[in-house]
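To assess whether the prediction recovers the assembly geometry, we first specified each molecular entity separately, as shown.
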Amino acid sequence: MNVSIIAGGAGFVGCNLLPSLAAEDRHLVILDNLCRGREEYLYPVRKVAGDRVHFRNVDLSGPAGTLQAFEFAQRVGAVDEVWHLAANSDIPAGVLDASVDMRDTFMTTFSLLEAMKALKVGTLHFASSSAIYGDLDGVLLYESIGPLLPISNYGAMKLASEALISAATESYLEHANLFRFPNVVGAPATHGVILDFINKLKRDSSRLDVLGDGTQQKAYLHVSDLVAAMMHIRNSRDLPKVFPINIGPVDEGVTVRSIAESVTQRVSPAAKIRYGTGNKGWVGDVPKFRYSVDRLRQIGWSPSRNSADAVRHAVDQIATQEGFGAAEATNG
Amino acid sequence: MNVSIIAGGAGFVGCNLLPSLAAEDRHLVILDNLCRGREEYLYPVRKVAGDRVHFRNVDLSGPAGTLQAFEFAQRVGAVDEVWHLAANSDIPAGVLDASVDMRDTFMTTFSLLEAMKALKVGTLHFASSSAIYGDLDGVLLYESIGPLLPISNYGAMKLASEALISAATESYLEHANLFRFPNVVGAPATHGVILDFINKLKRDSSRLDVLGDGTQQKAYLHVSDLVAAMMHIRNSRDLPKVFPINIGPVDEGVTVRSIAESVTQRVSPAAKIRYGTGNKGWVGDVPKFRYSVDRLRQIGWSPSRNSADAVRHAVDQIATQEGFGAAEATNG
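The predicted structure of the complete assembly is given in tokenized form:
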């Protein structure tokens, strides 16, 4: 039986992807250091595909440990694809300390590629990011735009990963999809603006302090749409050997202000929202962007929810969770 | 007195740059692991600026050693700029073993940036490469073209370095020039096609085996022009904070065939040239490219030699050197 390796598979996006992969008659080998992921996020997929779900707690920033984990996967079955979803997702933390993105976002890519080369695994699906585009000042971001000058170490290490993967497709790698994620919302959250707002309101239900003036506008995709898009691309035939593709909603996004209002209204209607100044929330934040998803539409996929619906649904998921628990994340 | 740190300063490009920097009233701190560079390459600059030339044999892929070297430089004087010319320059070696470019090209960038952050040095001049563009199939390469999908680990790690530098300009770095080198020829060579051909003719003066069919066409710049261009950009005012710029001749380059003929004619006229097949010399080789240097002309600089002149001059430099010694290098 074939085996999918899912690096970072116990994280927010990974655990949402697993059921779709498990619907095929294949084994899943999930590699995660549980730095942000949690083993309990695997319960749903274990319920439906118990003996085909294998978990290894491993730090993928080291080539030796990664190779060992791949050797384990090869004993399970024929490894035919790797999903690389492992990364630091705390952008401000990576700005303060460059070694965070270096280790968790880039060295994981290096180690996974080395293991794929050694064990002759030909197909890689990589979670890249709109952050590779840097701040192009509101210009429509299509896949072949330049120059690529990221403004955070997170974006830099995602671009560095794309570059290394691209070079690998010239020698030993057969095919690589470079999924350029927008901000993604849904449950279970490990980080991101909605979770951040909710945590603030938990600490003080009377007010919500927002970084920046709230005019930052971004496109948001619900994680269920993200997973559907990735599966659609993964199952498409005759794609270029290395295939960068934007995944996002077709709209121009929603503002931080509207997210703040949506969260407050649902969680603590009496709270007063207080805005900061400037249109950047933090160093590395891209204040506004417009995302071209023409390529995605050309290969026949569109999302079921727009940005506003995606945010609303994610906030709903939070509101119905006990003590408004884990519920949202961003990537980008 | 101000201090320039030149990382990789004992290499081919570095030792050609040093006299121009030494012409200013400043100290030069040269950091090099002498992997490809040589201390004897520093003799000319030592002759004219002896007590202002400081050399440290240091491996810049490690942050600790790099920081120590910077602390030494700060004891010499006020460090106001860093030139980052340290890199692996053997592209095929880096394709076979990804750790070579990772260590020598990318980790050096990481370490230098960490040291600049710690010691508050604001200006970086980085030797990037046309290799970041990958193989865009003969399309005119201007600085904002995309997608950037390098086909060698060398190109990938140059792009990764650009990305990390770009992110740094968003927080602690004041200004960074990203010089995108074409192939560069001149003396003293440490690697490259002319040196390769000469070494082959040294081993067997009766024939020259060329990888590929000889139709690969590239732009070549003489190292003297490269240095003049870099100094011109470095001394230009009011450039963007992070400034990617192609450096190259204005022509469309020369073919490998014409280089082979030029070398043979000069060094061993009776030798028979034998070509391989295909228009790629090796994995990671970009068969043909056209390089836009409009941006360079816009800021007021043009080269003194075209590609053909540059190659001819480099071959001349070789021919007059005893036993046709060190004489040429490529970058890209």
